[in-house]
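Worked Example 4.2. Consider the chain below.
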Amino acid sequence: LGKTTRYENQRVVDLPDNSSPNALISLMVGTDCQLSKRLSDDPAYLRKKEACASGAPMGDPAAPVLYPNPSSGNFICVQQSASLAADAIIITNAQGVQIGKFNKVRQFSISNYPAGVYWYQLVSNGKTFTGKLVKL
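Applying the procedure from the previous section yields the following structure tokens:
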């Protein structure tokens, strides 16, 4: 039916990025304690996964993110599943060199730049959020 992966004696397990929301996760402690949960049953799971991929702080579910991430270079600003017009977005490469600045945008493109990891600063309502972008 599906793939079973077993992790023993680990407090934290990183699930693959391509894990299906329909995946069933079972946690077992000894033989007497077991908890099973479908990922899609956790309303915060996909939001947290998206925030983690973007580099947004996990403690702030209201933090804006750039989506999809990774991408071929076209990104959309999203906050709590709604489109967001960012005041400014500054993109820098791995060497810290600014490669782009976008003002008052809901979406932008870095498709003309090489594949790799980039960093962003997103300014919205006077707050600055930082994270990473992966351009395929």
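The mean pLDDT is 79. The helical segments are 45-54. Compare this with Example 4.1 before moving on.
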